[in-house]
Amino acid sequence: MSSVAATCNIIVITDPTGEDPNGAAAGSMSFAENMFQSTFLMSKNNNFAVLSGGTGTSDTRLDSIVQAVAYLENNASAASVASIASQYKGARLVVGGPYIGAAIGGSFNAYVITVDDVSNEIKVTPYTSGVATLQPGQKGAIIHLRNTQGNPMYGTADSVRKETAMNIGKMIRDGYPATTILSEAMGEVARDSGEKYGGGGVNLISGVSTGDMFTPRDMNTTGSPMDEEYSKTCDDCGWALGFPSAEAYDRCPVCGGTLRTVYAYEALGNALTVSPNAVSVSVYGSDKPGLAATTKEIVEASVAKYGYDASAIAGSINRGINNGLLMGVDHVEPKDINVKQGSKAVGVYYNALPGDRSSPSWDLPIDGNILNVLGSIQTVVGIILILLVVFRSRLLKSFQER
Q1: Average predicted confidence (pLDDT) for the chain
Q2: Is 240 inside a domain boundary?
Q3: pLDDT for 280-308, tens place per residue?
């Protein structure tokens, strides 16, 4: 596996109080391969993110990340944690959260953006060394951007970094939530600098992540281009389908409505932006197509009706399995449901069914092995009957001769 470093790191804080569920967000991209989620770690419990990168080796970055997380979990300041990167050759760390501000340290080319609450004055300040800090309680952002060798748009990073920083400041001033600002900034960077492969992003207040929406499916490949088409959706009934399958549809197959094309950076913003009543649902144990989306719908409906009750959620999921809405996974128990009501998050842990089985075994009054034996006997009898039909004339002649 070839090593990779995120060349674009962005952290935006529009609500340092943490009251806005979309008031702090962070994300990473690169032109390089292997942009997996290890480049944007998030703590749901402590509301911080660690974005890594730099010119050092993958081992160097990993060591710096581990130390950074340990410091943050012990309530260290963002600036002191970012300074850890200077201890590791070529490493870069961007750290922050709604309550601790943000900082960048190590090997970087960045802008710190601040917006004054009273005057709405925007300041965009360049930094290339030491530690650059967005102070706690301050609305603002940090954007780092470099070009990757081999990127056909190499040499654009300096101008795009500055222009995007200014646009981030304007959006903060105009009252956009951090999740929307992050998605728009990532779209701009992708289009104008070519550093466009996810990666992904995190919502630091609501604890929502894009997970593997945009990361590569296989090692040594690129993730989703953030400036290209990602899906088509129907605003009338909610039907949606991702590319490339979406190319076959011009109208909604459910209601006949007009389909709207959603670009990857827009999908990122949609995934991270939540309403006060939204539920963050994470699915583990199986990557069956459609499983995560259907589970999310079932969990949201269960929470709306019964609240954050693990038993009720498990019951709703199992009814979905029995009804054929969910396929390829076994029934779940309350212990398989991880509920965090405070952060409005639910984790569902499935056990994938073996082989090609699509649904769990029936709960029958007799052992299922007995049915397997009976099935085998029936199959043998069937084969004998077929032989008798096919070879009846030969058998009759043989019997007459004897």
Answers
A1: 87
A2: no
A3: 788 888 878 788 888 888 898 888 888 89
Q: Is residue 263 part of a domain?
A: no
Q: Kindly state the percentage of the chain with pLDDT values over 90.
A: 52
User: Which pLDDT does position 400 carry in this prediction?
Assistant: 61
Tell me the per-residue pLDDT of 322-379, one tens digit each, with 9 for 90 and over: 888 888 899 999 999 998 877 678 889 999 888 777 888 766 555 556 556 656 666 6
| Last residue within a domain, chosen from 192, 209, 224 | 224
Full-model pTM: 0.74
Instruction: Tell me which residue range forms the domain holding 389.
Output: 368-401
Mean per-residue pLDDT, 163-175 = 97
352 and 208 in one domain? no
Residue 89 structure tokens: 């050759």
Same domain (yes/no): 89, 176: yes
Question: Residue 392: is it exposed, middle or buried by C-beta count within 10 angstroms (0-12/13-18/19+)?
Answer: exposed
Take residue 341 and report the two structure tokens written for it.
Answer: 């009501």
Contacts of 350 (CB under 8 A, 6+ apart): 283, 284, 285, 286, 291, 329, 330, 332, 336
